[in-house]
Amino acid sequence: MSTPAQVILAPERQIGAIDPRLYGSFIEHLGRAVYGGIYEPGHARAGEDGFRSDVIDLIREIDVPIVRYPGGNFVSGYDWEDGIGPKEQRPRRLELAWRVIEPNFFGTDEFIDWCRKAQTEPMLAVNLGSRGLDAARHLVEYCNFPGGTQWSDLRRANGHPEPHHVKVWCLGNEMDGPWQIGHRTADEYGRVAVETAKVMKWVDPSLELVACGSSNRKMPTFASWEATVLDHTYDHVEYISLHTYYGNPDNNTPNFLAKSIDMDRFISSVVAICDYVKAKKRSKKTVNLSFDEWNVWFHSRAADRAMEPWQIAPPQLEDIYTMEDALLVGAMLITLLRHADRVKMACLAQLVNVIAPIMTATGGPAWRQTIFHPYAQTSRFGRGVALDVDARSAVYDDSEFDAVPYLEAVATWDEAAESLTLFAVNRNLQESLPLQGDCRAFPGYRVIEQWSMHNADLQATNTQDAPNRVAPAKGGDAQVQDGRLAATLPAASWNVIRLAKTV
Questions:
Q1: The CATH number of 19-381 is which of 3.30.830.10, 3.90.180.10, 3.40.47.10, 3.20.20.80?
Q2: What average pLDDT does the segment 110-125 reach?
């Protein structure tokens, strides 16, 4: 057994209030995310609107607060007008980002209707690749203006008399990337983004806007991109975006499980850039972060390269997630919570079938992938304020990250509910980790439940035939005595320890 790890649970160690939108997700017109995922007319569990109720049930189980749509790379070539009005009159288009045929059976109005049924809020992205501010302002008018104008009356004619009231909007997607339709330099994008932001807010001053940050931390323009874009847009946006995906193609699990350290450094760097621009502008305003694409993504790349182009909704980016993937996703969730003071929105990419926690069989069932569980548990229990637990543990050596702690941990405290939750990942692949916690600052709190997810086979997956092979189990030895928490975290495990005030 390893040397005991230490945490401190205390209300004065608050990081910041947790915006529920930290647990958002993402649906793009990509693969089977829409067609065969959330939308499958004729399915036994689909209503007249074509929305799969079994998928909606799983999304509600996660309690997803916001969903980004329609992209992603897709949005940079998308004419939003193609996806409204009578479906039989909508055009089929070549979709160049993912080299498929887009039939446009599902568009803005369907997405809003689906959000209402899934009990989530929409986050819409506007096309700043092939289009620009005119299309963006018209889309805001279509969605949010009550009526009496061309675009708002068209929405009403399309069966939606009341405005959609879409609050959060992304100003394009990954415009720093050469792969992006309409790729721009930072100055070019910054000028387009600020002018688009201005007219969108002239239509609806209540909007919250997200400027495009770097597509990942390894982009050659990273940091200078953020500084330049914010120099243009700072006074007109509320957030700047971050995107990152991690993989383990070399089967180096210790290094893979340390990738959340890279995520932590990425966040800290972007916060510093935001605050540099704030100081430069002598501004009282604080721009926060929207980490609106993040996940593990690498399993499906070979299959995607071999896929024939110009199909409708082919099975693209269908990563089948393992136990070790779930451990990194858990560590990434912990990292987001450790930055809850500045990361106010985040989107696990994506929600269904495409690098997703939920998988479906077209015409068949839906099931939970391994990564579903840390996502769902953090969303359900990780509310209130985030607490820095000053986690300390033994470390292991890694060539990329040097000394990597075996313990990754954070806590959340809901003062009104008098509940406290500790989320923890044990990166030790061979040994369980004894955990000792000082919780004397929470008198009367006792352990009410403990969950742990682990599997002797780190490559274990959940499938249509074995949907519950990898799942959290309730139980364990966690207890509080005299203000001291003691627990055992199994080797290579995701853990949730919930405490509540009982006296």
A1: 3.20.20.80
A2: 98
